Amino acid sequence: MTSTNERGSRAYLLSIVLVAIIGGLLFGYDTAVVSGAEKALENFFRNGLGDLYTSGWHGFTASSALLGCVIGGAISGLLASRLGRKRSLLTAAVLFFVSALGSWCPESGILPYGQASQTLLVVFNFYRILGGIGVGLASAVCPMYIAEISPAKIRGTLVSCNQFAIIFGMLVVYFVNYLIRDSLGETSEAVQTAMNAIGWRRMFVSEAFPAGLFGLLVLFIPETPRFLALRGRDEKAYSILAHINGEAEARAILDDIKATVHEKREKLFTYGAAVIVIGILLSFFQQAVGINVVLYYAPRIFENMGASGDASMMQTVVMGVVNIIFTVVAIFTVDKMGRKPLLIIGSTGMMIGMAALAALSFTDSIGTAALVFIIIYTASFMMSWGPICWVLIAEIFPNTIRSQAVAIAVAAQWISNFAVSSTFHSLSEWSIGSTYCLYALVSLASAIFVWRWVPETKGKTLEEMSQLWKK
Predict the structure, then answer these.
(1) Coil, helix or strand for 459?
(2) 28 near 166, Cβ under 8 Å?
(3) Would 435 disulfide with which of 132, 206, 271, 427, CB 3.0-4.6 Å?
């Protein structure tokens, strides 16, 4: 019988990937937890601060974590190259945990409990930004880690699993938020009063449990072979590669890695500006199509469509289930159909969904049809740009510039995310139909961009990316 060392262990590979994608789950959990809490937060601070708490302040508070995401994304390259991929994930876990506790009780035992003030508002946003730094780190390092440890022929599938974990984390927090809201009282008035006082706190602290588990499990996973080879630890890199791929294949992979290690690793533009620009534009379009507007403000959007508080939260859970289903579609097709076809199909579906929502808004026909087109829009995103953008960002850059280039691309993604999310509130007050039209046009532009400029990377090893961009 063939030994595990000769053929590798898929169980070992999957166990490592399962730990890494918990970071993706926390990414989704942290960015979506505010969807259930943002209205109660608005009431809490507005009751205490009055007119000082403007719509601009609320837009910032609801999306302040995204500033941290920009910071985390920007420093991810430095941390990943200095500390390694594993210790960067551990750093993210600590930030998630501290942020969950701080957002739960921003008074921190110093400020008067339950009394909204400008100081408390600043401290709360500080803790949310801290969690955002964790999200930014995880968003860059989790797919990088999975891509660097996965065999080429299933790399797209495994990196897509990280997006599945992100969406699953959102679904989990939608459901947790629903349960917390449901447990607060028998009448809608009692529920709202309790939400303003303690409900939003319970939503934020619920993240501490998966964050603690993630930090514990990361201690038991290995560093990636690519990072170890870059640091000259060839024997350790070979041992991990052999455990995953088998001894014979591990030697060939390590030789390919070492061949790229000696190239000009210090220069970001060694392979030209095109690869960096394409990475940045992939990130930009993933956010500029408006997906996080739907994800962050889902309960409020459904309430504006006429649903009650509990019903809007349940509709959000239903939308989360749809997102899961279509992310699975991407997982099972990305290594068969390729990256480009799925991205173009997804862009087309998003354009149709947003254009229809715009038409419904202009004609004041918001109702069940709007829910249908929101589902079409999000399903199109989840089977394409959601997972596949992360696959491309994790694999498209050559080994020697990957950590820096991924950091730039991820920072660009979070800057775009913050710009879209923080302006939606004001844009929707101006004209919700025109806002949806804007997102539809961006979806069309994203399809043209992929068709003209993004190369197909299906089946290529990470080492082959060097030759791809040299050409």
Answers:
(1) coil
(2) yes
(3) 427
Instruction: Report the C-alpha gap between 145 and 19 in whole angstroms.
Output: 11
56: left (phi over 0), alpha (psi -120 to 50) or beta: alpha
Instruction: State the Cα–Cα distance between residues 389 and 386, nearest whole angstrom.
Output: 6
Report the range of poorest mean pLDDT among 70-84, 168-182, 232-246, 258-272: 258-272
- Please state the pTM of the whole predicted model: 0.78
pLDDT band at residue 264 using 50, 70 and 90 as cut-offs = very low
Spatial CB neighbours of 290, under 8 Å, sequence gap ≥ 6: 354, 420, 424, 435, 436, 438, 439, 442
Buried b (16+ CB within 10 A) or exposed e, 175-196: bbbbebbeebeeeeeebbbbbb
Q: State mean pLDDT over 196-214.
A: 91
- Contact present, 137 and 92 (Cβ < 8 Å): yes
Average pLDDT score over residue span 119-130:
93
Which residues make Cβ contacts (< 8 Å) with residue 363, sequence separation at least 6?
none
**Residues found in the chain:** 471
Q: Which of the four pLDDT bands, split at 50, 70 and 90, describes residue 2?
A: very low
Please state, in angstroms and as integers, the Cα–Cα distance from residue 161 to each residue in 112, 233, 334, 421, 460, following that order. 43, 29, 11, 25, 19
- What is the pLDDT, as a whole number, of residue 19? 94
